[in-house]
Protein: Phosphate ABC transporter ATP-binding protein PstB
Organism: Haloferax larsenii
Amino acid sequence: MTETTQSTDTEQAAESAQTSDIEMQRSGQPLEVTAGETREKTRDEWTDYEFEGDAKFAVEDLDVYYGDDHALKGVSMDIPENSVTALIGPSGCGKSTFLRCLNRMNDRIKAASVDGTVELDGEGIYQDGINLVELRKRVGMVFQSPNPFPKSIRDNISYGPRKHGDLETGFLANLLGRSDDEEVEELVERSLTQAALWDEVKDRLDDNALGLSGGQQQRLCIARALATEPDVLLMDEPASALDPIATSKIEDLVHDLSEQYTVVIVTHNMQQAARISDQTAVFLTGGELVEYGDTEQVFEDPQSQRVEDYISGKFG
Ligand SMILES: Nc1ncnc2c1ncn2[C@@H]1O[C@H](COP(=O)(O)OP(=O)(O)OP(=O)(O)O)[C@@H](O)[C@H]1O
Ligand SMILES: [Mg+2]
């Protein structure tokens, strides 16, 4: 079945609204946008979004289906390294689906099938022979609800590196004249400091992590993700369950982390996206990426009428 026969009236209307100025010129139609018409930036224009530095991810023609449901449609975008990319759009437009494609978390969903290419540092992550454990170590993830393990704060941090065999233990540690404990202590302090939680918990590292507040738990989960030394941090609405003070701590943290990490963050909070991100991708209902560019430009001068309507609250 082709995409055209599958698409609904609304989707067809959305597709036809993407007629570019060039196409209009070719077809002899006037260029002026009159009442009721929608001017959309052409796909070529925003796909060519240029940024400084290298691309961490290059996503090309990404389609995701859940059974017969076409959740993401032909998404192409490059994500620059060491910066914050915000993904925004109404509920159900495919933001989480897209995020999960970046570390193949969709593999865990039986009904999901993924087409297209996703390259991380120039290497296709969907090609055969990719080590998924290694991939997810490089591309860490933080979820909407904080989900610490029911263990001590210290054990939450050391769990990942221990599992990956990155903590020098026993014989090796002895050979290097260190004890396993020293390794753990260094790792715990470094990760918690990076996640701006160290000062609040340094005297209670053996306490159960579930005794922390929600905001502290979320920063612990960020520290846990950082402990395996990833390059990329994927965050799916990490502050949506938190109060304004905890939210602002997470926002500051995301900003600081982007000096060293590539952060891709889903948020429903448009002010938050505008505050913390360098570039913003707007997905709209139907699983399309409708606009992508510098955050300031997307919010202040969106090229797509639908994005302008969404941002100004006219629809969503
Ligand atoms: N595990 C799944 N099984 C089947 N369909 C799914 C699954 N996850 C998502 N979908 C469908 O894919 C589409 C996109 O969902 P997704 O969760 O990516 O949206 P979202 O933009 O993250 O929404 P929200 O803002 O509500 O979190 C939706 O139609 C949803 O019903
Ligand atoms: Mg989601």
Summary: The longest strand covers residues 55-66. Residues 3-148+212-311 form a domain with the Rossmann fold fold (CATH 3.40.50.300). DSSP finds 15 helices and ten strands in the chain.
